[in-house]
Amino acid sequence: MTQYGVTLTGLHARSEKTIQATQDWERGRIDQERLGKCFDEDVDSLVKLQHKVGVDFPTDGQLTLAWQDLFRPLSSGLSGLQPGPMVRWFNTNTFFFTPVVNGRISSDGKALSKAVERKFFDPHAGFKIVLPDPLTFAQLADDRHYGSKEKVLFAYSDALNTELRSLSSSGLKYVQFLAPSLVYRIKGKPLPRSTVEQLGEGVRAALKGVQARSGFYPCFGDASPYLPYLFDVIPTDDVGMDLTQTDNSGLEGTSKGIIAGIVDSRTTYLEDVAALASRIEDLAERTGAKTITLGPSADLRFVPRTSADEKLSLLGQVKNKLKGKGARPSKRSSKK
Amino acid sequence: MKAFPTQEIGSLPKFGWRTKPFRQMALSDEDLDAARRWGDRLQIEGRDDFYRLLSKRYSFSDDEKKTIIDYSLLYAIGMCERAGDGDASPRGLDLVWSGEQARTEMYETPVTNIGGFEFVGRVRSFDNKYWRMASVKAPPRYEKNYHLDEFLFTKKHTKRKVKVPVTDAITIMAWSDNNYYTGKWAKKPGLAPARRSFGARREFTLELAKIIRRVISELISKGVEEVQIDIPAATQYQSEDDMKLVAESFNETTKGLSATFSVHSCFPPSTGYGILFPHILEMKKCERFSFEYGNRDSFSRGLDPESRVGFEDLKLFKEYGYKKQLGVGVIHIHTDTLPSAEVVRDRVLYSEKVTGLPRENLYVNPDCGLRTRRPEIAQKMLDLTVNGAELARRTPG
Fold it and tell me: For B135, which of A69, A93, A268 is closest by C-beta distance?
């Protein structure tokens, strides 16, 4: 039978109280300590909510100042990088500071450790982290050093490996690569298989020796041009799809876990639980996947916190509806 | 026609004395001092009466709050009219506005005054900057003209040409939670997921465009000659269909209207403004595109592509044979680090070089509205706009 889980696929929304605190702090009305307390409460409530809805690998929501954007701990913490011009984050009204590569990218293994709020996690259960995948990094970075996106991709992957090894010795149980650049094709054709294979090599390099489960989740676009081979080429335990954008009928058997981005993270509209469950049952039946982890289609920071939490709870309801349902592993399952 | 005319893009920062009375906060000594300092510097008419009003510090009546807003409009007009260090001749911007001082901000004001919306909370845009997201819960409907009073006041208090910035339908759609239309389109059978979400976006956008057209039509009937259609979200949704929708929305908004229309957009994805082409050229009534470029540029002097790396995208206009006007953003507005006037001059001259447009068709402006800066920095940015354009004018073409 298919086992169902729930996960967060990206950065979570800050609460209204935390939002106000960040603004008060910027204007000198409160000190760093009070701001930190607000973030602590915020992370604590999110971790508790994840436990309540049955999330196996909870995150801290990556909602502290360290994660002003998905790149920031890396662009500020890895040698050879620095945050540069502000650029729109795909098709959202949010922005990130371009990582500028002005030297050899290297890691001392401390950049991510500083950014994760570990005190809220059970040391045995551990935590999950979401990071930009090597292709997205290479595509969005402003390279002034290597002279080739391929070199940037592998340099980033190697530096990430140092970071992840360090994190896996201090409680990291799941690393998920967020991979919008793979599927977000504005006018161009889908990337050639050779590029996806190269990405797979980058992911392999980043994960080498890392003792944690891994996932790869492309968001903001249609993954169907890469199905089913994406599941073979990307060397993670789970591979996902943004199902608000993807027609997944091209995916048949797989021995990998599937991350199903089933709930639309871009609107407060609450989907019908039965309709979502029905889509997932169909996916389970067709693929015979051993695990399907339900998630939002992307970060839930794109809606206010109240709605973000409602969406997370909705995922828990879908999971409950699916309990005991689903396909037996398919004979058509592909090799991992 | 003047070479390298200057314009602002829309918003200017609000002083503490403008915002605090509306948050039930008392004015501080610093607020009163700023009001005096800037009032004297800008030679605001009736300022002594205004200082007396502010000295009350708190518990302002509704009429007094209205007076405070009126003065904030005067201060903003003054900042535009007096921009430049005195070497520029004549001083000040050629196209002015009252800094959106009467608005909450460019998104909140329209969604507060168009029916069908409900605020659902704040969402982070970047770092510790947020916007108050409204959710559309029913088809949007016209309720009142939310720009008329500020226009009439501004027109009365300046002799310069006025340009009214109006937030467009695409931006309101993109920054809102599309709750109603997502639900409506979720019920349509047999559509691929991406078609479903685009259908919801398009229907929402075109409904909004009809309302904004009515707002602009009424403004034109009261004397507005120039309207800047603000589309910061033009490059947000980036599919081919969405790019066509940007043009369709503009054409729907301006259909049957007679005025000078320009378009402002900013902060595109890392691929730049290329994604808008060729569709934006279908905006038939658009006389000028005013885009941000300073953000991505270097602080080095020079007219070479390396120094002017942020302005490379301007080549697109030449490639597509564009002959009308451009507004060139020459100052990055999300930092207090300022370029020199000479660098601004070089940015202007490089724009001339790569577009091949006549100087009178190239407007000079900051990248975007200046509401996120402190007044001192915002004024310096306006000064640099005027001074840099003047230096460019003095350079033989």
Answer: A268
